[in-house]
Write a structure and sequence with these properties.
Blueprint (H helix, E strand, L loop, with lengths): L1 H20 L10 H8 L6 H11 L2 H22 L4 H11 L4 H6 L6 H8 L7 H10 L1 H22 L4 H11 L2 H9 L1 H13 L1 H32 L1 H17 L4 H5 L5 H5 L26 H5 L1 E3 L5 E3 L5 H9 L1 H6 L1 H13 L7 H13 L11 H22 L7 H10 L5 H5 L49 H18 L31
Antiparallel strand pairs: 1-2
Amino acid sequence: MKFLLGTFLFILVSGIAAEAQQPIPTSQPWTKQDSAAINALVLYPDSIRLAIFEACEYPGVIVNVADLQKNSSTDFSNLVSSYPQSAQEAIWNMSRYPGLISKLAEGGQKSPDQINGIVADYPADIHDVALTYGQNNYDLLKKIDDLQNQTNAEFEGLISIYPPQVQAAFRQLIQLPEALSLLNDNLNLTVRVGEHYKTDPQRVIAKADSLNLVQARQNAQDVQQWKQTIQTDTAAQSELKDAANEYAVGNGYTQNQVDEPIDDTNNVSNYTCYPYPYWFGYPSWYPYSYWYPYPYWYDWGFYYGPGGGLVVFGMPGFYFTNWFFYHPDHWNRYPHLGNVYVNHYYSRNRNVFTSNDLIVHNWIHNNRAYLPADFKTNPAHRVEAIREVGQLNEEVQKQVGARNPVTAAARNAYLQNNSDRYPVLNKTPQQPKLTETRQMPNIMQQPVRQPAVAPRQQAQQQQRSNFAPRSSSPYNYNNVNRAQQYHQNVWQQSQPAQRAQPEYHAQPQMEAPRSAPSAPSPRTR
């Protein structure tokens, strides 16, 4: 059955690919969707953009590679499924470091001294994990290495019939699992890019180069605006710290780890996050794409520098923002921070929304019946309006029960019966008309705990290493990650899916931190 399905997909996408190869007149204007498809790729470094353009000419290969990945990731999951989840996390973490499992597996089981010699060239946070599993689970590592070699051989055979530049493009994209996944998940947009690149590659390259500068400048302005606001608004800064603390502790970090300052600021700016390998995928129990296990402070958009001062280096990440707006008690307890998000959303002229913009947009949409009519124009009342909306949802949640969703009918009834408790919401009812009229995809999802990560080492204990993750890809992973987020946002908005509005439930109790044999490092940017 799997073979028949794979054959059907191959024939189907080959037909798409053949259609994509048909030339189109160079004078044909690009549609808005054509432009959006290409615009989504502009933040990637130029070498990655070229690899993506080349790959987009061959959507059939993209589908075949994705099918190979589906099989190999399933096989990997089956190999580790009998182990406790903490052990699975550790093994998945080992797989992120290129060549590590192969070096431990080849030539027979290694002694502790031999393992220590191998890991000396790898970052310190993987040493204990490699020693533990290299000593005690050699047979498993050997099976994983065999699976890796078999999959690589199948991949090379798959691309061997194509021109050298196409083969090189796919080899490069294998190292960028999220980008390759996005191409496969959005084949209609992938085909559009491939058509235009095949017909007029110089036009596509020139457009991407010019838009790269424009978008990079806009992103820098956004970050600077956020940074200035957080640094000058003491109430918002205090709430950001408190919310960030709650987020990190809820994800299994100790208070000492959260409070510990980071001295190596250059390491933060050029942080290398090794993604889960494309062939094995990310941990199977995660319900959404999670290829890059960055440390907790990456999601915050700031870290504590020497002396404990707050150092803002970017916007908060999607996971933190989604966590913040999903739970109404956060709006009640951190309304000044919520106001900074909303003000940032209203202050930007945008053609494309960031993931944070989408979350704020849909939060306003979902609560528009309760927000005052001057919510956009009157920031002085906005903080209290955010607080009252959070309080309203919390009170209704208590009334309906923690396991039941908060519905509009329940909120309306409670607000009507307790109007004196919500003076700002009742002062001037909100008009149902939205500032933003176009429908936007609702990307908010119930937060789940992020992958467990090993404690960040003390600066003086860190072992310096010359390990280069991939010598053929000398790019900044921070930039690549931001480019992938932008890519995903634009393509989501180019074909918005009909999604139900989120139903808010009481915040679940976070599970107690699991003890795992040294897993990855904290989520970082």
